[in-house]
């Protein structure tokens, strides 16, 4: 029996981040457009070859993008906002970069398109902007020529396109109209594109509709039927791909749509296989997404083999196998990791290895295993046994400690109303206290010192001395500016998550584990592989040193458990909740140690708090419960007179305000300036009881904020929140700014505060 294999998508940045380098060189004017196009072409060819070498039946075309695959589609359909002043047929690569970044080597700069997270991933796409009179026109050249390239290389091609409903859903109407109303205009363009692909000899097109894993309004559900009925006659086979979650209430709809196949994410929703098997019409294939496209662990092929045996029996060759989603979300190739030990490495699979898992699973399912594959299957089994029993993963003391957590550990001693008095007694802060979010400029000198230290050319003592000097400078600046509650500036931290991960047990770091975040930007998430514990204090020395330099209160600065979890690859052998609480316990000890060392204002950053929300509303309550508990487990060890701050970046608070209040932080600072204080409405409506520092200026912009503007913003804030409970601070950390920007900006902020105090 021959089962078909494919991948929904593949990383495009290159194992050595070649695409990043080429893009940045092109933007800097150091690479010609031809050379950039050539770099793209070579990467595509290499990545298709990897798919072929792994033994996949198709290579996937259409997942490549110089910036973002959704932006590719916007251009392919002529969706170019008027401010770029370019007709669809005139758009070129620089129009594309202009839309992505606001500027390009040629063309007139204009405000870049909005960027936002792709579902619950850390990948950011460019939001299509639809005008009320939006028309669509097909500009398929780029895609068609990529198809041509793949065909010329002798590949069997499957094309991937984001489907029409997900494309509309992920976009934004500019003005007061429903973007779903654009569907009738959009569908003919999709149909034309499918026709053109058919003309080129493409037999399968994968239409990604991950929104079928969301709670959809009735009108959108109905639109699926309309849309796919209309696309039905296009002479290609259509594979409808759903991932990042289960179909749930959309299951009946999805199995019935007039397409030729359905892809399911059986990593996120293994329980749906049975139902789909029972309901899938006999003419459809089922693509089983069983290899985890969102994490870096090796699959358990033996158990997958068992899980799929019934599907195999019932579907025969109508069963296809694939990763659960595009492999865009995992690093490229584990083989490069020469500094991970062999044991850890044997537990992992990156994109390239995941392709092998797909073909290996097919071989084991269909019984045609070669000698080499038998060995690979055995290695897979051994790795699982080693991982299940490893002492490096399972730390009885950590597990016992977590089991012994009792509800009292989640409670501060007194309620906020009493705590705040104990805090004010010693803090003696003025009305509208000023502070900052933590980091100060990461100067070229700081980066160089860190590089030299890592390279071994700067010894530890010299490195520490250099960082201490930076900290001292930062404190002096804040004192001169007249800020009330100081920070040390985080000079010693390369990254707010990595810094802690490197000091915790249970974490590993890769050298090349880059994952595209947006455009040319990549992140390298740490790997949490085992029970997490804290061998020793992580921040205390730095904070104590900083406090010794000033009489003003110094904030201790920690990254919270949810953010540590959310921005890492997390072990999949226990619930995320358990891992999160282990981190929380480690951080709890840090809070206790900071406090014992005399640090009595402690900030626990949780910028990723909201990001962790599940895609389906029905799952929110469960997440929020353990998320809030984890934060409280970290914080509640603090004495009442110790002031706990938290910080969250730009996010909606309306639908999670109860959970925010349940965190029971004494002070929360939030990113608000871009929303004109509108984010405070949620706090106002809720009668949020604790203190709030709404950011008064946007740290992402190099512009110096105006005093009047900040005064006006704070007046607005004071209409919503009693002034006694308001703080004044920037939106977020200042590490990406230069001192020449930071000093005048903070001076203006302090001046605005002075004026505000006079008014009150
Ligand atoms: N304390 C961190 C900083 O100032 C917070 C960063 C963040 O919110 N992303 O850099
Ligand atoms: Zn922030």
TrEMBL record:
The active site is at residue 700. Residues 5-313 form the Cobalamin-independent methionine synthase MetE N-terminal domain. 5-methyltetrahydropteroyltri-L-glutamate binds at residues 17-20, 117, 122, 521-522, 567, 611. GO terms for biological process: L-methionine biosynthetic process; methylation. L-homocysteine binds at residues 437-439, 490, 605. Zn(2+) binds at residues 647, 649, 671, 732. Residues 432-754 form the Cobalamin-independent methionine synthase MetE C-terminal/archaeal domain. It catalyses: 5-methyltetrahydropteroyltri-L-glutamate + L-homocysteine = tetrahydropteroyltri-L-glutamate + L-methionine. Its cofactor is Zn(2+). This is 5-methyltetrahydropteroyltriglutamate--homocysteine methyltransferase.
């Amino acid at each position: 029996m021959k089962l078909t294999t494919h991948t929904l998508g593949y990383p495009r940045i290159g194992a050595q981040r070649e695409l990043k380098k080429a893009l940045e060189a092109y933007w800097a004017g150091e690479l010609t457009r031809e050379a950039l196009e050539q770099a793209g072409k070579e990467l595509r060819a290499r990545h298709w070859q990897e798919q072929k070498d792994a033994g996949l039946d198709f290579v996937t075309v259409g997942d490549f993008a110089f910036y973002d695959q959704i932006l590719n589609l916007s251009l392919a359909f002529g969706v170019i906002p008027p401010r770029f002043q370019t007709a669809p047929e005139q758009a070129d690569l620089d129009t594309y970069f202009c839309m992505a970044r606001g500027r390009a080597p040629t063309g007139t700069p204009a405000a870049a398109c909005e960027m936002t997270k792709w579902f619950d991933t850390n990948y950011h796409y460019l939001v299509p902007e639809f005008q009320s009179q939006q028309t669509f026109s097909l500009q398929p050249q780029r895609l068609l020529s990529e198809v041509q390239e793949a065909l010329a290389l002798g590949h069997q091609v499957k094309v991937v396109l984001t489907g029409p409903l997900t494309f509309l859903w992920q976009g934004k109407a500019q003005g007061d109209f429903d973007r779903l109303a654009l569907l009738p205009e959009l569908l003919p363009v999709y149909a034309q594109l499918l026709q053109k692909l058919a003309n080129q000899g493409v037999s399968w097109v994968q239409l990604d509709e991950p929104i079928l894993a969301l709670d959809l309004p009735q009108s959108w559900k109905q639109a699926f039927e309309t849309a796919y009925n209309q696309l039905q006659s296009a002479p290609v086979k259509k594979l409808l791909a759903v991932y990042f979650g289960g179909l749930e209430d959309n299951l009946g709809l999805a199995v019935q749509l007039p397409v030729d196949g359905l892809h399911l994410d059986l990593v996120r929703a293994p329980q749906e296989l049975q139902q789909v098997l029972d309901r899938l019409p006999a003419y459809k294939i089922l693509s089983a997404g069983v290899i985890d496209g969102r994490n870096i662990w090796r699959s358990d092929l033996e158990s997958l083999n068992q899980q799929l045996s019934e599907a195999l029996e019932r579907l025969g060759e109508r069963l296809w196998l694939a990763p659960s989603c595009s492999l865009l979300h995992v690093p490229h190739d584990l083989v490069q990791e020469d500094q991970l030990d062999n044991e850890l490495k044997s537990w992992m699979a990156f994109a390239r290895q995941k392709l092998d898992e797909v073909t290996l699973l097919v071989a084991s399912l269909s019984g045609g295993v070669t000698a080499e594959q038998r060995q690979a299957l055995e290695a897979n089994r051994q790795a699982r046994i080693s991982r299940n029993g490893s002492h490096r993963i399972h730390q009885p003391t950590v597990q016992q400690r977590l089991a012994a957590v009792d509800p009292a550990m989640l409670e501060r001693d007194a309620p906020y109303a009493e705590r705040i008095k104990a805090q004010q007694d010693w803090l003696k802060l003025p009305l509208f206290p000023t502070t900052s979010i933590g980091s100060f400029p990461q100067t070229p000198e700081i980066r160089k010192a860190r590089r030299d230290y890592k390279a071994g050319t700067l010894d530890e003592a010299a490195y520490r001395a250099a960082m201490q000097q930076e900290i001292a400078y930062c404190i002096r600046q804040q004192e001169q500016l007249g800020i009330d509650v100081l920070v040390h500036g985080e000079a010693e931290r390369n990254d707010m998550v990595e810094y802690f991960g490197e000091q915790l047990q249970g974490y590993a770091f890769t050298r090349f584990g880059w994952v595209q975040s947006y455009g040319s930007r990549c992140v390298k998430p740490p790997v949490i592989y085992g029970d997490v514990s804290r061998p020793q204090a992580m921040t205390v020395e730095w904070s104590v040193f900083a406090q010794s330099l000033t009489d003003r209160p110094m904030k201790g600065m920690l990254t919270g458990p949810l953010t540590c979890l959310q921005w890492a690859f997390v072990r999949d052998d226990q619930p995320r909740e358990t891992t999160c609480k282990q981190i929380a316990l480690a951080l709890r000890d840090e809070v206790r140690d900071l406090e014992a060392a005399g640090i009595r204002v402690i900030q626990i950053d949780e910028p990723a708090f909201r990001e962790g929300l599940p895609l389906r509303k029905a799952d929110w309550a469960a997440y929020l419960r353990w998320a809030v508990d984890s934060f409280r487990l970290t914080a509640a060890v603090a004495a009442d007179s110790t002031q706990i701050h938290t910080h969250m970046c730009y996010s909606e608070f309306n639908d999670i305000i109860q959970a925010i209040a349940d965190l029971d932080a004494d002070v929360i600072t939030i990113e608000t300036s871009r929303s004109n204080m509108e984010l405070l409405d949620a706090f106002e409506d809720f009668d949020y009881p604790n203190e709030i520092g709404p950011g008064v200026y946007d740290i992402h912009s190099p512009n110096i904020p105006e005093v009047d503007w900040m005064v006006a913003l704070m007046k607005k804030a004071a209409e919503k929140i009693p002034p006694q409970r308001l703080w004044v601070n920037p939106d977020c950390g200042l590490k990406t700014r230069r001192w020449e920007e930071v000093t005048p900006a903070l001076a203006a902020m302090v001046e605005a505060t002075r004026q505000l105090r006079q008014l009150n």
